[in-house]
Design goal:
By secondary structure, this protein is an all-beta fold. Helices cover 0% and strands 47% of the residues.
């Protein structure tokens, strides 16, 4: 697996006009979306690096998002009535899923589709010192979520499936780890495995490229890192100790028709960070048709 050269941070473009974004969602044509801390829902125009707000959940805050084949957005609502909402391109909002028993989640954080239309959802818990995060799975069409992995996990944030959908990968924010859970042939959860521990770091975002490298948004110390599974090497891809070009990254994803534009959400700033020609292309995500 080829080791990439560190990125020249002077080449990073800041896409402005967003409000402390925490997510990057990608549509079937490489379209990009993000949300703001006050409930804004934005489209990102990669042609001219502008954004347009087309929906709002104010005053409710939202976190991660997934996109289906029709470019409807499935967004984790982390308010006191935490749930997964569905937002159309016209900005219409409906409730897509709730926790078991119709209750709110503790803190719905990040959804990801598999090819069958199941939606995996990380619930980060109450952000205390207790390990009480959960991972749920929502059946195609929405409704009541099912607890997928039976044991609590440590503050799970962004998640990603590998290309073969054999594992669900996620970051443990407070646990400072990269972990994965095997997906059994019948769809049930298999064994938990921690792949990497990040001492004195706050991992938050994850994405795969076509070579199998794992790209990581590390909130502290601010930067984009790459994990090479074949050698277990962890590389800092953006060297920016001042936190100016890359500040407070929480989520990253490959956008554009060729999945060759790396977008990084900056929770600590009013920008989305754009990195072109990084030397890799992202894996094409799954975009199911949801009735």
């Amino acid at each position: 697996m080829k080791v990439l050269k560190p990125y020249d941070i002077k080449r990073i473009v800041h896409i402005k006009g967003v409000d402390h974004p925490e997510s990057i969602g990608i549509g079937p044509g490489g379209e990009a979306y993000t949300t703001g801390t006050a409930g804004q829902v934005y489209r990102i125009n990669l042609a001219d690096n502008t954004v347009t707000q087309f929906a709002s959940t104010a005053p409710r805050r939202t976190l991660g998002l997934a996109v289906d084949a029709d470019n409807d957005l499935y967004i984790a609502d982390c308010s006191s009535d935490s749930k997964v909402i569905r937002i159309t391109q016209e900005g219409k909002e409906t409730t897509y899923a709730r926790a078991p028993g119709g209750r709110p989640f503790m803190c719905a954080n990040y959804p990801v589709f598999d090819r069958r239309g199941n939606l995996y959802l990380s619930d980060s818990g109450d952000w205390s010192s207790k390990i009480n995060g959960r991972i749920f799975r929502i059946p195609p069409g929405g409704g009541e979520a099912q607890l997928w992995y039976p044991e609590p996990v440590d503050s799970p944030t962004m998640m990603a499936l590998d290309r073969a959908e054999r594992y669900l990968y996620f970051l443990e924010c407070h646990g400072q780890g990269l972990a994965r859970i095997a997906i059994n042939p019948d769809g049930s959860a298999g064994a938990f495995e921690r792949l990497l521990h990040f001492p004195y770091m706050v991992p938050h975002g994850i994405a795969f490229d076509t070579a199998g490298r794992i790209w990581l948004a590390i909130y502290r110390p601010d930067g984009v890192w790459i994990y090479y599974p074949d050698t277990r090497r962890l590389q800092r891809f953006t060297e920016d100790w001042r936190g100016e070009a890359v500040r407070g990254p929480t989520c990253l994803n490959f956008a554009g028709l060729q999945r060759d534009v790396l977008l990084v959400a900056s929770l600590d700033n009013l920008v989305v960070q754009r990195l072109d020609n990084v030397g890799a292309r992202g894996v094409r995500l799954t975009f199911p048709h949801i009735a």
